[in-house]
Amino acid sequence: MKYGRIIKLIGGQYTVLTDQNERLHVKPRGLFRHHAVSPKVGDLVTVEDTLITAVEPRKNDLERPPIANVDQAILIHAAREPEFSFNLLDRFLIRISMANVEAVIVVTKIDLLNEDELVALKEKLAYYAQYFDVHYTSVREPASLQAMEKLLVDKVSVFAGQTGAGKSSLLNAFDIRLAIEVGEISKALGRGRHTTRHVELLEVYGGLTADTPGFSKLDFTDQDIDNLAEHYPDFFARSHQCRFRGCKHLNEPGCAVKADLEAGKILRERYENYKLFHEEISQQKKKY
Ligand SMILES: Nc1nc2c(ncn2[C@@H]2O[C@H](COP(=O)(O)OP(=O)(O)O)[C@@H](O)[C@H]2O)c(=O)[nH]1
Ligand SMILES: [Mg+2]
Ligand SMILES: [Zn+2]
What we know:
By secondary structure, the chain is of the alpha/beta class.
């Protein structure tokens, strides 16, 4: 009997990395199908002979990308190319929070900014740094990559971020043996073809990391509206001071979030995007 984690799934064939550092090629025992438990990448499993015979309960369970037991989502955002977007940053942060996963923000391609531009971006992101771990890096600046090592060791991570952000390039910079396709080739694989890509946890810097197209579903559904604000740690920290319980921080009187917004303690872009997301969800509701 062996114990390990599923690190790869291709065409019904699983690869398990055991606690003895062996790689086993296995199949799930037939029984799982009847119980609607389909082992997935990230699962901690028991293996007997060439069969997965038991799957541990999951601490979290992502659908897209399909990975279980993720410790953190590393949110990769380009400083430029594509242009940095706070709207997209907040969408990713909300999605990651809804999946019950820790988020880490990594701004990459900083070599594309001049000194003043970098200072300006860092000033705005200093607001986020109160609530999230924020890192700055570039594959062109090897020294900036070293800080990333501490981030990945002993953890199961997924790289998330829009196509072209620089996810695959970063992983390649960590370990050239990975030789992941970057740039034009991966762009061609982009939208609508995610299904052709398999999910795999790569051994990088003493941790397991998945390079995925990542959290493709960044629009919100009407089920999300009631607790949207809960996924804003900065709003949540203040909401106990709002006059009304369940305050949505929109037009309610005595709102502590709006008071701090006016006092300049909450980043205006972030609040404006929050209102925008609310509207987006309301529009969605009207369609039904
Ligand atoms: N200047 C610069 N370009 C980068 C950097 N990282 C990635 N790129 C380029 O950005 C493009 C997209 O990178 P890729 O890793 O494929 O992004 P992914 O879609 O998120 O995996 C490629 O043309 C890379 O060469 C960086 O740190 N600096
Ligand atoms: Mg890529
Ligand atoms: Zn409020």
